[in-house]
Specification:
Elements (H helix, E strand, L loop, with lengths): L1 H29 L4 H48 L5 H29 L13 H39 L13
Helix pairs in contact: 2-3, 2-4, 3-4
Amino acid sequence: MMFRLTRPIRFACVVLFALLFIGQITGAAAAPRDSTQNQRDNATLERTLQAQLRRLKVQDQRLKRADQFADTVERVARQQKSQGRDVSQIETALANYRKGIADARAAWNTADKILKQPAGFDANGKVTDATQAQKTLREANAAMQKVSRLAWNAARELRAALGKFRSATPGFVPPAFPQMP
């Protein structure tokens, strides 16, 4: 008889312990945050804003180099065409590349607009509203990711066309691709 009571008692103790443990966890999660935690969160948001502003500047420089690269490829294509070679695939890919870089520039302009007057931050980059600051940073990050995706997709087709042309043309060395944003 004693053995039969021990199992239910053990089970009840385990359940009681689990409920107490869960209560401690949810109680801690529901507790209000202290001001030092908020200050750390704000400092993180401020550092993230500065990092995104640096990333935006790098993307701008890389988009400018991508435009210059398109001009170089166009010059090389004209030179190869003057030698009687078929560069129609390069010309088509170059037109698509220019369109893709223009789309990436439009996405960059969106990110630039968001980060020029970042909601949730003051003029010095200090957090004034943490929720709004987080939203601003998410929107800017999404726009900058779109810049990268569009630029990479634009470069893929041109890279393939230049590779095909290089394979078919002995001695042809295509220009080196710039870093994509």
